[in-house]
Amino acid sequence: MNVEERISSIVSSIRQRTDFMPKLALILGSGLGDFADRIEVVCEVPYQELDHFPVSTVPGHAGKFIFGYLKGIPMVCMKGRVHYYEGYAMEDVVLPTRVMARLGAKILFLTNAAGGLGDGFQAGDLMMITDQIAMFVPNPLIGPNDDRIGVRFPDMTNLYDPKLCNLIRQCAIAHEVTLREGIYAQLTGPSYESPAEIRALKVLGASAVGMSTAVEAIAARHIGMRICGISCISNLAAGLSGKPLSHDEVQAAADAAAKKFSILVEESIIAFDREKEV
Ligand code: HPA
């Protein structure tokens, strides 16, 4: 089955359950797991019930699509994403993003937990993603291009939509949430980076590092979505704090920042709607 056939098959399985038309798609990273409590849920579709869909295996990443309204705004959330380090092909990693686009979502709001390496960054900070470095992971568009999805050589200028970024900035000010900004670098994981790799990423201009997001942004741009994203800095990147990194601590720090993270994401989506961006 080619990618287009997989997308169509998954979209039709979802359409057998709901005719809900999301305007915006939100991928929930670590720490935003409870965001769905803010949504008036219309329908939930566990990934495992969808043929041709990759199923996540990471603890804390229970996987399902949640369709519903956030303050009247129709959206779809991915609770649990698919990571390359789990062993999936990049085509599988970005398949859910493409499905959400085909279901009607015009905007993709990406969230994640990430290691921080920007000057002055601290665990618990939020960082709006202004650009990305994806060159250390395979490009998700490698392979035959299907023109029904997008063009062969998509432009990646202004990948993170400047208008949406501005609205997020304004929301952070209005709600007194301190918001950093910077470049997100995706590495494959699952090992955390070495201190030397973090120093190298710093030279390249990265402020946050993680194991997701950038390839989803590429696939989303390819299929024509507008993109924005926020990282929760769950820890200082390797070698910057003097302490070894542990997944449990990363998860705990992401959970601790969850409330302000949720508020900022919710208020930003409301602002997108108010400004007629969705
Ligand atoms: N590195 C990579 N991925 C991460 C990190 C990190 O330090 N923290 C959370 N996700």
Brief descriptors of the model:
alpha/beta, five-stranded mixed barrel, 278 residues, binds hypoxanthine, 8 helices
Distance between the termini: 32 Å
Give the cofactors and ligands: hypoxanthine
- CATH topology value: Rossmann fold
Structural class: alpha/beta
At the first level of CATH, the class is Alpha Beta
Would you kindly provide a written description of the structure presented here, covering whatever features stand out?
- α4 links the parallel β6 (126-133) and β7.
- The chain has helices at 3-15, 90-93, 95-102, 162-174, 195-204, 214-222, 247-256, 258-274, and strands at 24-28, 40-46, 64-70, 73-79, 107-116, 126-133, 179-186, 206-210, 226-236.
- It contains 8 helices and 9 strands.
- The chain has a single domain (3-274), classed as Nucleoside phosphorylase domain (Rossmann fold, 3-Layer(aba) Sandwich).
- The chain is of the alpha/beta class.
- Strands 5-8-7-6-9 form a 5-stranded mixed beta barrel, surrounded by 4 helices.
- Bound molecules: hypoxanthine (HPA).
- Hypoxanthine (HPA) binds at residues 113-115, 192-193, 209-211, 234-235, 237, 245, 250.
